[in-house]
Amino acid sequence: MIAENIARIQTNIAQACDKVSRPRDSVTLVAACKTQPVSAIIEAVTAGVRHFGENRVEEANPKIVEISATIPDGLTWHMIGHIQSRKAKEVVAYQGQRRFGLIHGVDDIDLAARLSRLVTERGDSVLPILIQVNVSGETTKSGLEAAGWAEHATIAQHITGQIKALAALPGVSVRGLMTMAPISSEMEDSRTVFRSLRLLRDHLQDALGIALPELSMGMTDDYPIAIEEGATLVRVGRAIFGER
Ligand SMILES: *Cc1c(COP(=O)(O)O)cnc(C)c1O
């Protein structure tokens, strides 16, 4: 079941790439495996998935340790959820080791500063992060506020200043942006949000002269649309593992 689901998703990803003339390897499938048992994750690995996303660090770390005993190499773990500042330490290292390859949900400056300090104190290599941005304006969504950035120069300036400050932090490396589209029954409603995130990324690259290659956007209901709009990382849970 999991293997069939993954095969179908890989086909959909390839089709979405073809539609907009993107190379297939420009998109990485991140299997969102929160609440899934280790056995289901191993099934996904067997079916070819190498990237996994967890959203609660206290659930993720023991699972990562257990899976590393079976599959020592080749997997990348993504922290995709909101991080409480008191949990930052466990995101940076667990049982003395770096466990996550990319942190998607960095949604405020204080959290980024804390991660920066923890990495620097440990003398670790730089921790790659994505900045979560709220481009939809939906009040329930976390992330740096950027709704209306294209229409209002003051909003664009504000978010640009924030990203500049984040990019200057030692110990972390801003690799790109992440967003959550509003929950909607219509796939196409997400398109505007995804497009806005990509255009904001382009604007920030130009304004700051930095590279922000990664765009983490798109989930079970809208990942093909996200790919058409430039997603490099799609976070897919239910379409792989079934309803939670
Ligand atoms: C669970 C989760 C996903 C995957 O959602 P599905 O609808 O199951 O595909 C993506 N992103 C985040 C941040 C999540 O927590």
Provide key terms for this protein.
single chain, alpha/beta, TIM Barrel, 9 helices, 44% helix, 17% strand, globular, binds pyridoxal-5'-phosphate
Your description of this structure?
The protein has 244 residues and is α/β, with parallel strands linked by helices. It has one domain (2-241): Alpha-Beta Barrel (TIM Barrel). The protein is built from 9 helices and 9 strands. The protein has helices at 2-19, 38-46, 57-70, 88-92, 109-122, 153-167, 187-208, 223-228, 238-241; strands at 28-32, 51-54, 76-79, 102-106, 127-134, 144-145, 172-178, 214-216, 233-236. It is globular.
Present the secondary structure layout.
Layout: H1 2-19, E1 28-32, H2 38-46, E2 51-54, H3 57-70, E3 76-79, H4 88-92, E4 102-106, H5 109-122, E5 127-134, E6 144-145, H6 153-167, E7 172-178, H7 187-208, E8 214-216, H8 223-228, E9 233-236, H9 238-241
Parallel strand pairs: 1-2, 1-9, 2-3, 3-4, 4-5, 5-6, 5-7, 7-8
Helix pairs in contact: 6-7
Pyridoxal-5'-phosphate is lined by residues 32, 34, 55, 80-81, 219-220, 235-238.
Give a short synopsis of this structure:
The protein is of the alpha/beta class and 244 residues long. It has helices at 2-19, 38-46, 57-70, 88-92, 109-122, 153-167, 187-208, 223-228, 238-241, and strands at 28-32, 51-54, 76-79, 102-106, 127-134, 144-145, 172-178, 214-216, 233-236. Helix 6 (153-167) packs across helix 7 (187-208).
